[in-house]
Amino acid sequence: MKNQIPNLLTMSRIFVIPALIASFYINGPVGNWIGFALFAFAGVTDFFDGYLARSMNVVSPLGRFLDPIADKLLVAAALMMMVAFERISGLAVLPAVIIMCREIMVSGLREHLAEIKVPLPVTVLAKWKTTAQILAIGFLLVGDASPDLIPSILIGDILLWIAGIVTVQTGYIYLRTGLKHLD
């Protein structure tokens, strides 16, 4: 059973997505905070599934497969819902689109490179991108429900642009690395 704990945590991130989507249909600040809490819960499970898998030495093929998919599905669902509900609007939609396009591109590139046994390891810059992206989504999920002293929307928009800019950089790095192996 202990072998399955990291996989169960990964699966929980996928199962949180419908609840996160539903939170957008709850009127008022409660919906914002529920969405944020669900997203934060998913972030905590992301940390612990990786930590437990490594510390218990139970990294599995299923976990390696599901972990990045769970992350991408959660981020894509949050971004799409925030655009649909105009929590991300105007020019701020651009970094959201860039983030989603880069994720699809890198996933496809990784899949192809895996077939020819070429690894595409995560870069330190990509980890910074993910951090900015997750923080941006958290602030934007809270949105105008935040206390007046905390400009959540402004902070979220700035972090989303930072994530978008770093996304372009990391996408280029991965593409440049991957193209060397594409004939």
From TrEMBL:
It holds the Pfam family CDP-OH_P_transf. GO terms for cellular component: membrane. Its main location: membrane. GO terms for molecular function: CDP-diacylglycerol-glycerol-3-phosphate 3-phosphatidyltransferase activity. Pathway: Phospholipid metabolism; phosphatidylglycerol biosynthesis; phosphatidylglycerol from CDP-diacylglycerol: step 1/2; Lipid metabolism. Its EC number is 2.7.8.5. The chain crosses the membrane at residues 73-100, 149-175. It catalyses: a CDP-1,2-diacyl-sn-glycerol + sn-glycerol 3-phosphate = a 1,2-diacyl-sn-glycero-3-phospho-(1'-sn-glycero-3'-phosphate) + CMP + H(+). GO terms for biological process: glycerophospholipid biosynthetic process. Keywords: Lipid biosynthesis, Lipid metabolism, Membrane, Phospholipid biosynthesis, Phospholipid metabolism, Transferase, Transmembrane, Transmembrane helix. It is found in: Membrane. The keyword Transmembrane applies. PANTHER family: CDP-DIACYLGLYCEROL--GLYCEROL-3-PHOSPHATE 3-PHOSPHATIDYLTRANSFERASE 1, CHLOROPLASTIC (PTHR14269:SF62), CDP-DIACYLGLYCEROL--GLYCEROL-3-PHOSPHATE 3-PHOSPHATIDYLTRANSFERASE-RELATED (PTHR14269). Belongs to the CDP-alcohol phosphatidyltransferase class-I family. This is CDP-diacylglycerol--glycerol-3-phosphate 3-phosphatidyltransferase. It comes from Thalassospira tepidiphila MCCC 1A03514. The lineage of its organism: Bacteria, Pseudomonadati, Pseudomonadota, Alphaproteobacteria, Rhodospirillales.
